What does this fold into?
Amino acid sequence: MGVIKFILRLIGWLVTIIVQYAGSMLVIFLFSVIFAGVDTISRLGWLALLLMIWVGYMIGINLVGMVALRWVWKDTRQLGRLRLLGSAIGALIPLLILLPIGYSVPVGDAGTRFYDLVTNNWQPILAQASFFAGILGYYIPGLIKTSPVP
It folds into this structure.
C-alpha cells in the first residue's frame, strides 16, 4: 500500500510541476501580448524581456504552487516566503548568467549577430534552465527538515 501511495504522490507532484510550467507560459504569453511594442533588439528592450520572463516564472510557479499546496497537498508545509525567495533566486541565477553573454555581443550594425547568438541560441536554453531552477528553489524549502519552534 505504501508503494502505491508513493507513486500517486509522485504523479501528483509531476502534474503540479506541469501545471506550474503551463501557468508560467500563460503569464509570459500575456506579458508578450500586453507589451507587444517593446523593442527586443536594443539592450534595454532585451533586459525588459528578461525581466518579464523572470516575473512570469515567479507568478506561474508560486501561484500554481500555492494553490496546489492549499487545495491538494494540505498535509505539506506551505512556507510561503521561503518558497517565494527560493524560486526567485533559483529563477534569477540562469538569467544572470545570460547577462555577460548578452553584453559580450555588440548591438547595432552587428545586431543580427546579437539576435542570432543570444536571442536564438542562449536565451531559450537559459530561460528553460531558469524555470527548472525556479521549480527547484520552490520545492527545496519543503524538503529541508527544520526543528519545531518551541
User: Anything to note?
Assistant: The chain is about 80% helix and 0% strand. The first helix runs from residue 2 to 34. Residues 2-143 form one domain.
